[in-house]
Design goal:
The chain is of the alpha/beta class. The chain has four domains: 169 residues, 3-Layer(aba) Sandwich (Rossmann fold), CATH 3.40.50.300; 65 residues, Helicase, Ruva Protein, domain 3; 113 residues, Zinc Finger, Delta Prime, domain 3, CATH 1.20.272; 186 residues, no CATH class. 53% of the residues lie in helices and 10% in strands. A hairpin with a 2-residue loop joins strand 6 and strand 7.
């Protein structure tokens, strides 16, 4: 008779505390409690699926009922140890709360709990998915859980502890089972593969570990699938075979895409995204994997930081990280991390990933700031004008002092020319404003710039303001000082006359200055974009110009 095949998840299920992978914090507490005899009457094991909640409860049950116990090292050969492992011990009952969640089920449990164990030291109830119990069922369990008989132990397990009433949580000793780190999953899978005498590459084991997402049980099920699909005559199970068998994306594609981004090769990054699409990748998962790989590179670039990854991956990451500047690695990680939210909400996740890759290619710096400045200066040459370089989150901001200083002073053209020709109305008005400014009335001079001259003669200086303009009040308050300044400039006393107008005055000095500044700014931007120093900066940094400012205006 053929012996039925036992799947790896059952064959290699931990039988003692030392076999639990990645749960050292829980093991330490339970072992110390057993050694000291301070074992609670009720335990709650919480955590994601497939990480060892029910397994921990079974091991604890064996430790409590072992003939050599209670002991942190159950023998595994006595009657209670063998029967508990096989699930046939009459004194250790496993109850699935998902299908036995009514008040009558709990009442039956409570009645049975009154009787002493048939053989073992304790009567133990392992209740899986305990959060599925109904409200009345929790109430029925509460009294027994609070004051159980000395021969009773409750071991509860759940993936959703938030659904348990506070009255239950306060009466149990809680242990949080964690997701198993990738490095520990891969190490355990390698041990099992060697025990099964199956050759598996590191890449294939890492792929299985990543697909399991921290669940040891899922990892064993996937490894079982890999073994079943493999032809022993074909030799070692490769990463490519693993990806094809499991319908997963080979991690080499993720590494290729990130490497292309770091090399600022947009075409290669897009080709990598296309390759992922051809392999049927879930682009939301791809975005997560890209960000995770970029994070691993950042950590690999930091001295003294340890990562819980397979040894071969740690070495590969360290080698790759050493080839790039830490500033670029950090920026690429930031951009890919931010892209995850965009991809999850996008109507077309593929397009969102591609946009994120292009952004990372063009906006991540390719070196440290001092190094980049040195490269710009080398390209621009010693004759380049002064350039202020400021690197901000996603772009290059260039600040350039214009070569033609007369552009900056164009607003004063009339003042420079009136010594050589008679002044017109606007010219005389500018002269009066400057006279006010020379009299140390800068506020009043600024207010006058918003007025339009109507007439300037011996009968008076008449100016117009828009009705309700605040500058008119400023001028009115300073009327006496302004007339004194006007008299010095004109050579005769001219009373100031203010006229309010419904429409905004045209061609005020302030408006003309604004137009001149806008024109000068436009010319500066156009000139700066073509300037050798700026073009060199853009070429080296791979950024884009957001703004150009005249240093004289700051």
């Amino acid at each position: 008779m053929t012996t039925p095949y036992l799947v790896l998840a059952r064959k290699y299920r931990p039988q003692r505390f030392s076999d639990l992978t990645g749960q050292e914090h829980v093991v330490r507490t339970l072992v110390n409690a057993l050694k000291s005899g301070r074992v609670a009457h009720a335990f709650l094991f919480t955590g994601p699926r497939g990480c060892g909640k029910t397994t921990s409860a079974r091991i604890l049950a064996r430790a409590l009922n072992c003939e050599k116990g209670p002991t942190p090292e159950p023998c595994g050969v006595c009657g209670p140890c063998v029967d508990i492992a096989a699930g046939t011990d009459v004194d250790v009952q496993e109850i699935d709360a998902a299908s036995n969640n009514g008040v009558d089920d709990v009442r039956a449990l409570r009645e049975a709990a009154k009787y002493l164990p048939a053989r073992d030291r304790y009567k133990i109830y392992i209740v899986d998915e305990v959060h599925m119990l109904s409200g009345p069922a929790f109430n029925a369990l509460l009294k027994t859980l609070e004051e159980p008989p000395g021969h009773i132990k409750f071991l509860l397990a759940t993936t959703d502890p938030q659904k348990l009433p506070a009255t239950i949580l306060s009466r149990v000793q809680r242990h949080n089972i964690q997701l198993v780190p990738l490095g520990k999953i891969v190490a355990r899978l390698r041990e099992i593969a060697q025990s099964e005498k199956v050759a598996v590459s590191d890449a294939a084991l890492s792929l299985v570990g990543r697909q399991a997402q921290g669940s040891m049980r899922d990892a064993l099920s996937l490894l079982d699938q890999l073994f079943s699909a493999h032809d022993p005559a074909a030799g070692e199970i490769t990463g490519e075979e693993g990806a094809e068998t499991l319908g997963a994306l080979d991690n080499s594609v993720v590494r290729e895409i990130v490497a292309a981004v770091l090399a600022r090769d947009a075409a290669a990054a897009m080709a990598g995204a296309q390759k992922a699409y051809d392999q049927g990748a879930d682009f939301k998962r791809l975005a997560e994997d890209l960000a995770a790989h970029a994070r691993n590179l950042v950590l690999a670039s930091l001295p003294g930081v340890k990562q819980d990854l397979p040894d071969h991956e740690v070495r590969s990451l360290a080698q790759e990280a050493a080839e790039h500047d830490s500033a670029q690695l950090s920026r690429v990680f930031e951009l890919l991390q931010l892209a995850q939210d965009e991809v999850s909400k996008a109507a077309s996740p593929r397009h969102a990933v591609e946009v994120a890759l292009l952004r990372a290619v063009y906006l991540a710096p390719s070196g440290s700031l001092p190094e980049l400045v040195a490269r710009v200066e080398a390209l621009a040459g010693k004759e380049a004008p002064r350039v202020t370089r400021t690197l901000q989150a996603s772009a290059l901001r260039a600040t350039v002092k214009p070569e033609n200083e007369h552009e900056h002073d164009s607003e004063h053209e009339d003042e420079h020319e009136h010594e050589n020709r008679p002044l017109d109305l606007k010219g005389r008005w500018r002269q009066l404003i400057e006279a006010v400014r020379a009299a140390r009335k800068a506020g009043a001079a600024a207010a006058l710039e918003h007025a339009v001259p109507i007439k300037i003669d011996r009968t008076g200086v008449q100016i117009g303001f828009r009705k309700g303009a605040g500058q008119a009040a400023i001028v009115q308050d300073a009327r006496g000082a302004l007339e004194d300044a006007f008299e010095k400039a004109l050579g005769f006393r001219a009373p100031l006359q203010i006229v309010e107008q419904d429409a905004a005055p045209d061609a005020s000095v302030a408006q003309e200055k604004q137009k001149q500044r806008a024109a000068a700014s436009g010319n500066r931007i156009a000139t700066a974009r073509e300037h050798p120093a700026v073009r060199a900066a853009v070429e080296v940094l791979g950024g884009e110009i957001e703004d150009v400012r005249d240093l004289g205006e700051e």
